[in-house]
What does this fold into?
Amino acid sequence: MAASYSSLIGLAHETPAVRRTVALKLLERVAEHWNLRKHHLPALLNRPPRTVRDWAENDRAPLEPDALERISHLLGIYDGLHRLYGDERFADQWVHRPNPAFGGHAPTELLLSGRFTALVEVRRYIEQALNS
It folds into this structure.
């Protein structure tokens, strides 16, 4: 994926509309790489399906700061996995594999729970692995 987590960070000084557009496109690409469907996006962002649909269909629908932060964590997870493993296919499949660090659950189960703490927990796990 050419655009990554660093792409979103580089947008700090852009207009909210540009940040919103790029963030949503990157989220869709990560979901695609992880073999998640559009109906999973509301759970990842902890938003009603109608809200996520509005974001996709209406360029003026505001993207809330919490949603942008969630997208940032998801991109950090994606980017971290690719830096950690170097093998795109393995990194993308990792999120679907049961992991003892998460009580035997696959990371996607946690991510799709809608809990913000789950995003942080998975991201922290990957960051710790990168730093060890």
Remarks:
- The two ends are 25 Å apart (CA to CA).
